[in-house]
């Protein structure tokens, strides 16, 4: 891999150039990230999406590097052939991303909209502060997934670790496997669906009443992502004993007024 | 923050682990640039039955006053004469740096006595003592330490390493990981996290006759495991028990002559990525470290809270 330069402040690659190595074919492009650095991979991606009018990008050999495919604020389709390190696909608004490997900690952090599908496992803090869109992890996720979640849906094909949905405020978490201790601890609102065993519930997380809307949501998401026929889920919601959550989102406030 | 890494070849085959661990640690340099440490398990001494002791007579940043070199010279001679007086037959003494040494010798007496006798010399610290274990640690990143100590020549079956971002104690070799499980031969520990009941355990273990060479909370884990294992516990049992006894956030890796184990606290607060294949087990704070030694796409996962996993070579 290429040697990374640092400036006097310790910032990595303050003056990096766009590598322009992609093979561009109309609205599609593909490039090999093996010899690029984190900064140049992201620069290449931005150059393709914002300046070359490309709508579909395939990236080979991401090599588990951190902070790849972040801050993309346009509708596009990305395929990442391999695994990402920490903070992958964070702060995105619009992209549809398919990661064929795994992702590290804090994947899809603060994502606003779009879809991220991960074929492998994910680390802890997956979908932290998620605002919207769908995060689908076919494997297992680490601890504290959906921490501070404020919208969107996280779907986990296998098991999840401790403190899943910690302090979640809105949105949905769907877990097809078992969950660790402290599920939904201190949650304000939102819904957690678990098909497997729950090791223990967190403070103020209680079983909820199943409605037709829940069935419709689960069936729709399973159909969209080709997850087969859904297993039987238990539903968990906030007991509303610890907190009251009556503030509206700015967009909702406009609608009400 | 700190970064930890471990690698063990399951079939006991010998590999250039000095180089491999350096690549793993260098890729995690951003997790801790203060110091880098290695616990390497070689096999060359098993044949001739020798013990290897790594020790230092000054720290990397000890002030170089006018008689610094004289003192090192004198203390070095005292170490060798003390080893001889205990009946140890010195095979070879290597000067790795002006202040850090590696000595191989044959000896069948009490290791605690030997370590205490050496550490009685002012500023001397035994970094490791064992038939296979060698601990190398110094300030700077992995490539600096690798170069300084000539680790490209080191081959063996398993190793652990640590890059340190100092939070609890000073930036010096005494505060760098890995820690040797004094006085238990061939056991070492690297730790990422903070222990909140450090002083309680330090006092308890000191009363049991253990010594502490640093102000670093992580040293507790190594000495704690030594205490449990000297009472007859296996590595797995000692690590299982540590989950209840140690308070704080931690992911730590412990190694013995033929085992490598990892333990996570009850919050799974500190990261660990695990890769298992038929040939080897590699684990690190970040997958990028594992990818530094495995070139192809791999399946990895993060262990959950309160998990203790141990592998044999």
Task: Give the structure's gist in a few sentences.
The complex is a heterodimer of chains A (257) and B (313). Chain A is an alpha/beta fold.
Per DSSP, the total helix count of chain B is 9
Strand order of the largest sheet of chain A: 1-2-3-4-5-6-7-8-9-10-12-11
The coarse silhouette of chain A is elongated
By DSSP (H or I, 4+ residues per run), the number of helices of chain A equals: 3
- Going by helix content, strand content and strand pairing, the class of chain B is alpha+beta
Q: What proportion of the residues of chain B is helical, as a percent range?
A: 25-40%
Terminal Cα span of chain B = 29 Å
Q: Give the topology string of chain A: H per helix, E per strand.
A: EEHEEEEEEEEEHEH
CATH fourth-tier homologous superfamily of chain A: Glutamate synthase, alpha subunit, C-terminal domain
Molecular shape of chain B: globular
Largest interface: A-B, 26 and 19 residues
**Count of separate structural domains of chain A:** 1
What is the N-to-C succession of helices and strands of chain B?
EHEHEHEEHEEHEEEHHHEEEEHE
CATH level 1 name of chain A: Mainly Beta
Q: What is the CATH topology descriptor of the largest domain in chain B?
A: Glutamine Phosphoribosylpyrophosphate, subunit 1, domain 1
CATH homology superfamily of the largest domain in chain B: Aminohydrolase, N-terminal nucleophile (Ntn) domain
CATH topology value of chain A: Pectate Lyase C-like
Compute the number of structural domains of chain B: 2
What's the oligomerization state?
Answer: heterodimer
CATH architecture of chain A: 3 Solenoid
């Amino acid at each position: 891999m290429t040697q990374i330069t640092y400036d006097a402040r310790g910032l990595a690659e303050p003056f990096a150039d766009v590598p322009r190595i992609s093979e561009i074919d109309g609205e599609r492009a593909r490039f090999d990230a093996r010899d690029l650095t984190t900064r140049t991979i992201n620069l290449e991606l931005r150059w393709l999406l914002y300046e070359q009018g490309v709508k579909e990008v395939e990236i080979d050999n991401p090599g588990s590097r951190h902070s790849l495919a972040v801050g993309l604020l346009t509708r596009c389709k990305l395929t990442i052939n391999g695994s990402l390190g920490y903070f992958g696909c964070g702060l995105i608004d619009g992209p549809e991303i398919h990661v064929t490997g795994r992702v590290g900690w804090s994947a899809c952090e603060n994502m606003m909209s779009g879809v991220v599908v991960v074929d492998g496992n994910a680390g802890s803090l997956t979908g932290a502060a998620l605002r919207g869109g769908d995060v689908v992890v076919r494997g297992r996720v680490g601890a504290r997934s959906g921490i501070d979640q404020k919208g969107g849906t996280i779907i986990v094909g296998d098991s999840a670790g401790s403190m899943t949905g910690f302090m979640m405020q809105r949105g949905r978490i769907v877990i097809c496997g078992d969950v660790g201790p402290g599920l939904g601890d201190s949650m304000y609102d939102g819904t957690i669906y678990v098909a497997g065993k729950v090791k223990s519930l967190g403070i103020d997380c209680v079983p909820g009443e199943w409605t037709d809307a829940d069935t419709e949501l689960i069936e729709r998401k399973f159909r969209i992502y080709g997850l087969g026929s859904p297993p039987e889920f238990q539903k968990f919601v906030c007991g509303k004993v610890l907190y009251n959550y009556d503030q509206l989102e700015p967009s909702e406030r406009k609608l009400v007024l | 923050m700190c970064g930890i890494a471990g690698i063990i070849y399951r079939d006991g085959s010998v590999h250039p682990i000095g180089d491999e661990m350096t690549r793993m640690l260098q890729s995690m340099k951003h997790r801790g640039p203060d110091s880098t440490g290695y616990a390497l398990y070689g096999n060359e001494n098993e044949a001739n039955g020798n013990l290897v002791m790594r020790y230092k007579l000054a720290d990397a940043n000890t002030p170089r006053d006018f008689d610094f070199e004289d003192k090192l010279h004198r203390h070095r001679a005292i170490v060798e004469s003390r080893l001889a007086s205990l009946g140890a037959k010195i095979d070879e003494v290597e000067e790795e740096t002006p202040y850090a040494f590696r000595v191989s010798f044959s000896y069948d007496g009490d290791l605690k006595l030997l370590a205490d006798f050496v550490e009685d010399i002012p500023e001397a610290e035994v970094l490791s003592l064992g038939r296979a274990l060698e601990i190398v640690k110094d300030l700077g990143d992995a490539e600096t330490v690798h170069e300084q100590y000539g680790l490209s020549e080191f081959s063996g079956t398993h190793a652990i390493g640590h890059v340190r971002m100092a939070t609890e104690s000073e930036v010096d070799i005494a505060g760098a990981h890995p820690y040797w499980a004094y006085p238990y031969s061939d056991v070492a520990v690297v730790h990422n996290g903070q222990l909140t009941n450090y002083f309680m355990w330090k006092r308890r273990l000191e009363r049991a006759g253990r010594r502490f060479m640093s102000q670093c909370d992580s040293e507790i884990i190594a000495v704690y495991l030594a205490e449990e294992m000297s009472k007859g516990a296996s590595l797995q049992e000692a690590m299982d028990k540590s989950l209840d006894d140690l308070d704080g956030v931690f992911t730590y890796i412990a190694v013995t002559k033929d085992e490598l184990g990892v333990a996570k606290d009850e919050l799974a607060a500190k990261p660990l990525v695990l890769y298992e294949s038929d040939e080897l087990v590699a684990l690190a704070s970040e997958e990028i470290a594992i990818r530094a030694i495995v070139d192809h796409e791999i399946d990895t996962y993060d262990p959950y809270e309160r998990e203790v996993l141990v592998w044999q070579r």
